[in-house]
Specification:
By secondary structure, the chain is of the alpha/beta class. It has helices spanning 7-24, 36-39, 41-56, 68-77, 93-117, 154-161, 184-195, 225-233, 241-253, 269-275; strands at 28-33, 60-65, 84-85, 88-89, 122-126, 133-137, 146-151, 165-169, 171-173, 179-181, 199-204, 222-224, 258-263, 281-285. The chain has one domain: Carbamate kinase, CATH 3.40.1160.10. It is globular, with a radius of gyration of 19 Å. The chain starts with 6 loop residues before the first helix and ends with a strand.
Length: 287
């Protein structure tokens, strides 16, 4: 590839990216990172490279991450069986301690270290730091699973203004000091909304919103909010895609300019989404 790709072609690619670079320089882009792109080591390296490249050209990147598989793995190693209700992890006191240890500790610091190794400047935060993500209990039967009540953006904006990439783990707290496990997509949507970000990117393990869930070629590349409502009514947006699209709608309603549900299994999908005509998923925007 390197030999067949001439310097002139490289220059042409960079020139074509220029209008997109101009559009996003100085703007805030929130990336929710998880799924297969987080487990696959090659993809993980590429995601970190994408983020550092965007940071180097002046995009204000905020990385929000999950870590479900790592939490389940640690629970199993500690002799505790993971349990889910409606896709949400049942989180007793022992589990929330494990969640905090894995997300705010191991996963968060690993990502910060990777970004630094790629040439970026990153600082890790959890939703507890600076009371970044304030929440209340969602449902007694789920235990310490939180619904977000407020996002205090000062810790993020301070880091951005000082040239850092904030890396945020989705653990929150209430006013009494209890810690909560929070859905990563939901946290990213609320953080993007509070920051009035230019774009929210949700990385997933599917191509985006599909007209036929069994056919990756039936990707719907663009949706308005009105079309989203129609596709929910007709059942095209269904199952696990409902909460993901719902997070995008929440973000748009809170002031985010547009949102993308994107296939994180594709190499360098973030760069494809932000710096090319093609994009890499389903783009959702206001009417």
């Amino acid at each position: 590839m390197g030999e067949s790709f001439s310097n002139a072609q490289r220059a042409e690619v960079l020139t074509q990216a220029l209008p997109y670079i101009r559009r996003y320089v100085g703007k805030i882009v929130v990336v929710k990172y998880g799924g297969n792109a987080m487990i696959n080591e090659v993809l993980k390296q590429q995601v970190m490279e994408d983020i550092v490249l965007l940071w180097l050209i002046g995009v204000k990147i905020v990385l929000v991450h999950g870590g479900g598989p790592e939490i389940s793995d640690m629970m199993t190693r500690m002799g505790k069986q993971p349990e889910f209700v409606d896709g949400l992890r049942v989180t007793d006191q022992e589990t929330v301690d494990i969640v905090q240890m894995v997300l705010a500790g191991k996963v968060n610091k690993t990502l910060v270290n990777l970004l630094e190794m790629k040439g970026g400047k990153a600082i890790g935060l959890s939703g507890i730091d600076g009371r970044l993500i304030e929440c209340r209990i969602r449902d007694e039967k789920l235990g310490f699973v939180g619904d977000i009540t407020k996002v205090h953006i000062r810790p993020i904006t301070d880091l951005l203004s000082n040239g850092y990439i904030p890396v945020i783990s989705t653990v929150g707290c209430d006013r009494e000091g209890h810690s909560y496990n929070i859905n990563g997509d939901t946290a990213a949507a609320h953080i993007a909304g509070a920051l009035e970000a230019e774009r929210l990117i949700l990385m997933t393990d599917i191509a985006g919103v599909l007209r036929d869930r069994n056919d990756p070629a039936s990707l719907i590349s663009e949706l308005s909010l009105t079309q989203v409502a129609h596709l929910k009514e007709t059942g095209i947006i269904s199952g696990g895609m409902i909460p993901k699209v719902g997070c995008c709608v929440t973000a748009l309603e809170q002031g985010v300019r547009n949102a993308v549900i994107m296939d994180g299994r594709i190499p360098h999908s973030i760069l494809m989404e932000l710096l090319t005509d093609e994009g890499a998923g389903t783009w959702i925007h206001p009417d």
